[in-house]
Amino acid sequence: MAGPEILNKPVEFRSGLKAPNPTLKSAMTERLCTWSDDPSEFNKRGWPTEAYINLYKAWGKGEIGTIVLGNIPCDARYPEAKRNACIDYTIAGKDDYVKAYRPVMEASKANGSIVIAQVTHAGRQTSEEIVDVPVSASDVQCAPAMGMKFGKPRPLTVEEIKDIVKRFAFAAEVLYEAGADGIQLHAAHGYLLSQFLSPRINKRTDAYGGDLDGRSRIIFEIISAIRQAVPDERFIIAIKVNSADFAEGGFDGDDSMEMAKRLERAGVELIELSGGTYESRAFEHKKESTIKRESFFIEFADRIRPHLTTAKLAVTGGFRSSSAMAQAIAERSCDIVGMARPLTGEPELVKALLEAKSQRAIETHPSLPAELAIPACVFQMSQLGRNEPVSNVGTEQGVQEDRSEGGSEEMDEK
Ligand SMILES: Cc1cc2nc3c(=O)[nH]c(=O)nc-3n(C[C@H](O)[C@H](O)[C@H](O)COP(=O)(O)O)c2cc1C
Q1: Measured from the CB, is residue 377 less than 6 Å from ligand 1?
Q2: Shortest-distance Cα residue to atom 18 of ligand 1
Q3: CA 307–ligand 1 middle distance (angstroms)
Q4: Comparing C-alpha atoms, which of 32, 9, 120 is closest to residue 68?
Q5: Closest ligand 1 atom to the C-alpha of 70?
Q6: Which domain holds residue 107?
Q7: Which residue among 23, 25, 28, 66 is best mutated to probe the pocket of ligand 1, counting the most ligand atoms within 8 A of its Cβ?
Q8: Ligand 1 mean position to 285 CA, how many Å?
Q9: Ligand 1 centroid – CA 25 distance (Å)
Q10: Does the pLDDT value for residue 402 go beyond 70?
C-alpha cells in the first residue's frame, strides 16, 4: 500500500503549471456574496464580501494542491442559490469584476495552492424562490428536490445559447485577469451544461440536441470561446462532469468515457469526475465494491484514466483518509484526489494529512441526511468567513442548535 509521501508530490499540468500536491478542494457554493431579491437590482447580486475572502484565507493556509472556487454563475438571473458569487457581463464591466475578485485569488494562493474558479449556470435547477420560469435545454421540469421546487423550464433559443457561451468566456477573462490559474466549467450535478448532456433532459432536435455531438456542442463552443478570450495556454480549462447521472435514460458511464476523450482532445487539462443530479443524488456509495476505496466514483475513474494522456483526472466524493487517497494515485485510478465536505469542518486537513499529523478526516456530518449536510457545510463556511471557530455540526441536533445561535443568514453586504 502507498504511503502518504505520494500525496506530497507536485502535479504538473500540460501547460507547465504545477500544483504543489495532488489534492483538490472541490467547488462548494459558499453563499457568502451580496444578494438582492429585487429583479431590478441584479447588479447587487454576487459581489465578493469580506466573509467570502476570509473563507479563502482559511483554505489558502491549508496547503491544498488545487483550490476550486465555487460556484460562480455567469448569469445573475439563474444562480444556484441566493448569495452565490456571480460574474455577469450584462451587469458590470471587466475592471469592476477583476478588482472585486482579485483579493479572493490572492487569499487562495497565499501558500502556494493553484486556484481554479468554477463557473456555472443552474438552468432548470434555479429554484422557484428565485425565478418562476427557469431555462434549460428543453422543457423537462426538475422534480422538487433538496427542499426546493422548480418551475417548468423554457427551452433556450439558439441566440440565448450563443449568449451563454459568451458569458462563460467573459467570466474566464475576468478570472484570468484577477489572478486565477484556470476556470472550471460545471457540467455535473444536473446544472445547465449537464442538462444539455443528458438525453433524458435534452429533447432538442436542433444542433444542440440528439447524439453526444449535439448534446455536448455547447460545452465545446464554450471551450473554444474561452481559448479565444484567454489565449495564454497556462490558463487551465477544467471541467467537472458526471461519471453518470444515475437516472434512467440519463448521461451514463459510456458517455462520460467518450466525453473525457473528446475533452482532452479539445485542450481541457483537468477533468473532475463526480456524479448525480438534484433528482438522483449520488454523494454516497452506489456499490459495495467502492466502500473500501472510499471514493464513490473510483470505478469510473479506473475505466477513464487509461484513455487520457495529457489531461489530469481528478475524482471527488467520499475520500476521507490519506491511505485511500494515496492508493487511488499509486494505482493510477486518478491523478488528483478531490474533497469537499471534510474541508468545511477542517480547512487545514490537507496540511495535517501531508504532514502525517492526521490519517483521516473527522467525520463532521456522518449522521446528517443529505438535505442537512449541505446547510451544515454552508454554515461552517459562514463561520470561517466570520473568523469564528467552526462548530461541530455532526448531528441534526447540532445543526438546529447552531442555527438558533445565529445561523448563516447574517453576512456582510457589499
Ligand atoms: C455545501 C456544499 C456545496 C456544494 N456546492 C457545489 C458546487 O457549487 N459545485 C460543485 O461542483 N459541487 C458542489 N458540491 C459538491 C462537492 O464539490 C463534492 O462533489 C461532493 O460534496 C462530494 O465530495 P465529498 O464527499 O468530499 O464532500 C457541494 C457540496 C457541498 C457539501
Answers
A1: yes
A2: 340
A3: 26
A4: 120
A5: 8
A6: 4-369
A7: 28
A8: 15
A9: 9
A10: no
How far, in Å, is the centroid of ligand 1 from the Cα of 379?
14
Instruction: Kindly report the protein residue whose alpha carbon is nearest to atom 13 of ligand 1.
Output: 28
Task: Indicate which residue's Cα is closest to atom 3 of ligand 1.
Answer: 28
The answer to the question of residue 409 being in a domain is: no
Q: Is residue 135 part of a domain?
A: yes
Would 395 be classed as within a structural domain?
no
In angstroms, rounded to a whole number, what is the distance separating the alpha carbons of residues 173 and 96?
Answer: 12
State the pLDDT at residue 364.
Answer: 67
Q: Do 193 and 216 form a contact (C-beta atoms < 8 A)?
A: no
Question: pLDDT tens for residues 22-69?
Answer: 999 999 999 999 999 998 899 999 999 999 999 999 999 999 999 999
Rounded to the nearest integer, the mean pLDDT of the chain is 92
Is the CB of 283 within 6 Å of ligand 1? yes
What is the 205 CA–ligand 1 centroid distance (Å)?
32
Q: Is residue 406 scored above 80 in pLDDT?
A: no
CA proximity to 321, closest of 301, 307, 306, 342: 342
Query: What nine digits make up the cell of 24?
Result: 483538490
Is residue 13 one of the residues assigned to a domain?
Answer: yes
Residue 137: pLDDT above 90?
Answer: yes
Mean pLDDT for 380-385 is 96
- Rounded distance from Cα 315 to ligand 1 centre (Å): 12
Task: Find the 26 Cα to ligand 1 centroid distance in Å.
Answer: 6
Q: Is the minimum distance from the CB of 240 to ligand 1 under 6 angstroms?
A: yes
Q: Is the pLDDT of residue 409 over 60?
A: no
Confidence of residue 405 (pLDDT cuts 50, 70, 90): very low
How do residues 62-72 score in pLDDT, each as one tens digit?
Answer: 999 999 998 99
CATH of the domain at 251: 3.20.20.70
CA dist., res. 327 & res. 325, Å (int): 5
The answer, yes or no, to whether any atom of ligand 1 lies below 6 A from the CB of 349, is no
Question: What total number of domains does the chain contain?
Answer: 1
Per-residue model confidence as pLDDT tens digits over 222-250:
999 999 999 999 999 999 999 988 888 88
